[in-house]
Amino acid sequence: MSRRTIGVRVAGAVLALAALAGAAAGLVQLRVETTVDSFLPAGDPAVTALGDNARTFGGDPIVVLLESQQPQGLLLGDGRLPTLMRLEGTLGRLPDVATVYGPATIMNQLAITSQDMLARLSGTRDGLRAKAESEAKGKGLTSSAVTAAGNAAVTDFDRRYGALLVRGLPAGLPTTNNPGFVRNVIYDSSGNPRPRWHFVVPAPNAVSVLVRPREGLDEAGTRRLVSAVRDAVGHAGLATSRVTVTGVPVVTSAVTDEAVGEIPLIGALAVVVLLGRFLLAGRRERLLRRLWPLAAALIGGVLTLAAFGWAGVPMSFGAIVLLPLLLGIGSSFPLYLGMVADRRKVVVMSAASAAAFLSLAISPLPFVRELGLALGLGVLLTVGATLLLGRRFAPSPPEPGKRVRAVGGVRRWVLIGCLAAVATTGWAVLPRLEVRASPEDVARGLPALDEARYAEQVLGSSGEVSVVLRGNDVQNPAAMKWLNQAQDGVIARFGDRLRPIVTAPDLLGFLGDKPTSGEIAAGLQLMPPYLTSSVLSPDGTQALLTFGLKLQDLGKQAGLLDDVRASLPPPPPRAHADVVGLPMAAARAYDLVRWDRYPANLAGIAAAGIVLLCGLRRRADALRAVLAAVLATGWTIAGLWAVGQSLSPLTVALGSLATVTAAEFTILLLDDARPRRVVRWACATSVLGYLVLALSRIGLLREFGLTLAATVVVSYLAALACASLGRRAGSGKQATAPLKAELVEV
């Protein structure tokens, strides 16, 4: 062996080790996030309003639902309220917490405010008496007259405020150590929680603590916060019969944990499944030659994940589905390279596949755009690895075949016409398919969603939506009147689907229907800022009516929220009102995805078609590939409609996904006779790769994998139909085989 050869091999080994180290470093830096933001249209006004609201009042809460065996068992009894108060204090001191609302802190704040009010009333009364007696002494009146003047001065005061104190404090001094005071404030005469406190005391035997995270908390921070909340509750020492920690942050954190755990498992399973497929195929070939297609696809997938890590761009579900999809699709490119005489055609096909995937970038949902970018980059890197390794392991391609005359026949054209009719039906019914775009749909199959639904039964709701009034001053009489009217209107029309959680009219309801500016200011001084800050911004420019609603179909939810917005009365001068919240943003995402069906499906077909038209020598082959993609997409949609299956944000752009396999299979079947067996193996490989996703615990990914597996089979059938219109073949006999026989062979 010459020195030059040794030097080349050493240099190659060093470069390979450097690439391996770089890939490992990128994988270490890879972040997986499934935050709510990844399911919402970035930059949309509904999402912007949600962020603005979170900055002022905190994000969607982590809900700690505590239940006891006995009614009122968590608030009344020796040491129970102080224990709960310590827990709420601990939660409030956690990093990344904006505020905490709980019954113990509310009671403590009300007690302090009541004591301050009593002190102010007592001081005011004493001041009135002292002033009157001083004036009487200055006039030289007798001591009895001085006393009478003092009594007369406080008579009006006692007449006005005495009865109020007697009615308001029938249970004695306002202190958390007084069970009568706690019982009178929280519960009514029958022992049920008063409506205004339902958001923290939803049932006689249950209390809830709402932990609102700061605005803009990332996925890592959310996971740490959820874990810290669980730890704090576990060490609180409360006598509970059941503890449920739920809320949107908890659900998204659970999805992220599941995603992170499934990345190596799903990826490894895909490798094992496809490894068996490659070991069984071509057993007369050397082992390395059989496995190099899988190695090339694995290199492309790992490099793609590493690229996201190096770029500092987090991934969501793309991190899970990337390896199964690339191993299923990418491992076919090395097979094509060894079986197609014109290797340029393989490069053009791969570029068309990457373009089809990249077309997902038009999706309004960030996680779908990210998946398209990852798959497009993965295909290009896989083809690059294929070309690099193919010099050593790929078999020599065959000689090009001769193109024969396209085959006709009445039965063939009748069959193709019927298949085209089915595809047309599929494209026509596309708008009728239901689309699920709710963040909650992602968690289907996970215990976190079951806990959220249980908490919904106790709390009466699982999501929050707020009517926000914004203006220079929303604490004036006109604004308070509007808030009362808006709340009454929403409850009157939608009370069966929306329930008030915490609102400014409820907290200031003791002021009556028409409070003056002075009475509003005095009322706000009487209420603890801890409570008023949940419905009024500190600068007095925002006021909230927060309602709870249940998990429901997004289409119905979107209609409900549109009706709520339309029902609001005209806002006061120089003010405007809006409906904000995660349900509103999710409904907006639903609308965008729902109206994006045709562009989402046609974009991938168009992108791949343009690449094929520009890159292939025969334009007719590109047109047949496009036709196959149109047929495959239409057939798949028709099948989904026939079985009553809905679309998800991942499958709503089915055309972009079907184009990849349909176009590839068609181009190969038009090349010559030899690739037909390779195409069948490629079809089987893709199906196996996609079916691995069916083992995911995340319902969205299970459906995605099953749908794509069916799409690959349909793509193969569409490719057979379109390739029958004209094919290169080694012999005229193969080229003239009827389409029916080809379908039977499949």
Automatic annotation (TrEMBL):
Superkingdom classification of source: Bacteria
Signal peptide: none
UniProt keyword Transmembrane helix present: yes
Spans through the membrane: 263-280, 292-311, 317-339, 346-365, 371-389, 410-430, 598-616, 623-644, 650-671, 678-698, 704-725
UniProtKB keywords: Membrane, Transmembrane, Transmembrane helix
Family statement: Belongs to the resistance-nodulation-cell division (RND) (TC 2.A.6) family. MmpL subfamily.
Protein name as catalogued: Membrane transport protein MMPL domain-containing protein
